[in-house]
UniProtKB/TrEMBL annotation:
GO terms for cellular component: chloroplast membrane. Belongs to the polyprenol kinase family. It comes from Escallonia rubra. It comes from the Eukaryota. This is Uncharacterized protein. Keywords: Chloroplast, Kinase, Membrane, Plastid, Transferase, Transit peptide, Transmembrane, Transmembrane helix. The chain crosses the membrane at residues 81-99, 119-135, 141-164, 185-201, 207-229, 241-259.
């Protein structure tokens, strides 16, 4: 029995096709295990060299810096106060840049003064609305956003009262270059946008209708009316059918466009009922804007008030 046992143990083992396959696969498995170990532990070039392996470093410092940067951005994004501060700064820079652009065009006489004033009127509010998704959902975000046009209220008061001199701003925002004009239309304009931010904000179709009809509607009404407004409205010879049609059309299209824009962020649920409401508000503001009383008071006052009143009824 012992001899048989020794003979059995000393006999060479026969290799099978499966053994040959495992022999070929084993180096690959060892390589994958080694790669896994290297990935799990931070290594340096000297550490890899001491292992006698010609691998390049799989976890370089640059990657770790990117991870740290991503973590910092993630922590920053989770802090709504920091988000609102950054959004306020960025939105303020954008608004100021647009104002500076139109001030320069007015100063250099590149654009007719009346057209330049209306381009300011159209662009400021609409571009500012594009920045609203940058802010957090807290009411603090709405108030900080409102602080941007709110500072412009102070500026209009200082310029309109003659306390602060800024000829470029006066020229870009007034009809006849009189600084006292800033106490009317431009002041109402800034106050209306501030009100839309602080009270209604981006979840309300009233805010959308107010700013879109004030900026796009009233702005293009003047631009188109001056160029194609030969056919006057019977009850107000200072207004034209072309201007009124342009106001209703652009105010409505801009409202629907921003409705869709904010729905992409989940602030508003777009619907045909809301679109119909925007149409009603645009038609109402156009009718009020064409009335002689609106000309006597100021379009920048009557259009926002009409948007709020009618918007409250239809939305």
């Amino acid at each position: 029995m012992p001899m048989a046992s020794n003979t059995y143990l000393s006999a060479p083992l026969k290799s099978t096709p499966l053994d040959h396959k495992l022999t070929k696969i084993k180096p690959i498995l060892d390589l994958r295990v080694l790669r896994l170990q290297i990935n799990r532990t931070p290594t340096t070039f000297l550490g890899c060299f001491s292992l006698g392996v010609g691998f390049r470093q799989l976890n370089p410092p640059r990657t770790r810096k990117k991870v740290k940067s991503a973590a910092a951005v993630s922590m920053f994004a989770e802090n709504p106060v920091a988000v609102d501060i950054l959004a306020t700064s960025l939105s303020g820079v954008i608004a100021l840049s647009i104002l500076r652009l139109w001030e320069e065009t007015a100063k250099r006489g590149l654009v007719d003064q009346k057209l330049n004033r209306k381009l300011v009127h159209v662009s400021i509010g609409l571009v500012f609305m594009l920045c609203w998704p940058l802010f957090s959902s807290d009411h603090r975000g709405a108030l900080l956003a409102a602080s941007i046009p709110g500072t412009n209220i102070i500026k209009m008061l200082l310029l309109g009262l003659g306390i602060w001199k800024d000829d470029a701003t006066v020229k870009s925002m007034s009809r006849f270059g009189d600084y006292r004009e800033l106490l009317k239309g431009p002041l109402y304009y800034a106050a209306a946008i501030t009100l839309a931010c602080a009270i209604y904000w981006r979840t309300s179709p009233i805010a959308i209708a107010l700013i879109c009809n004030l900026c796009a509607g009233d702005g293009f009404a003047d631009i188109v009316g001056r160029r194609f407004g030969s056919w006057k409205i019977p009850y107000n010879r200072n207004k034209s059918f072309a201007g009124s049609i342009a106001m209703a059309t652009t105010g409505f299209i801009a409202s629907v466009g921003y409705m869709h824009y904010y729905s992409l962020f989940g602030y508003i649920d777009e619907s045909w009922e809301m679109i119909l409401g925007f149409l009603v508000v645009s038609l109402a503001t156009t009718l009020v804007e064409s009335h002689p009383l609106s000309t006597e008071l100021d379009d920048n006052l009557t259009v926002p008030l009409t948007s709020i009143l009618v918007g409250t009824l239809v939305f």
